[in-house]
Design goal:
about 15% helix; mainly beta; Archaeosine Trna-guanine Transglycosylase, Chain: A, domain 4; 5 strands; single chain
Length: about 100
Amino acid sequence: MRIISFSKHWQKLANPEFTTFRFPRKDKDWFKGEIVQVFYKSRSPQREKLGTAEIISKETKTIGSITILEAIADGFNNDFEMWRFLGKPNMNRTINKLTLR
C-alpha cells in the first residue's frame, strides 16, 4: 500500500471525502480504486498516520484550468495562492485531481 503525504494539517483532512492535487508520478501514477495510507509529514520525525483512503476519482488537468472554487476546496484562499504553493509551475503542466474517501 502506497503512502500519500501532506505537509500541512489541512482542514480538509478531517472530512470523510476530500480532493488533493498531485503531479503525475514517473514510476507509477495514482489510479482510481487504489487504497493508500494517508500521512502528515511521512518523512519527518513529526510523522503522523491519519488513516487509509481509497482514490475514488482521478481527473487529469492543467494547472491553468484549476478553478478558484477547486483551489478553495483544496484549502487555499484562491488559485494564485495554490499556484505559488505548487512552486509556480508552468500553467500548461499536467496535474492530477484526486478525490479520496
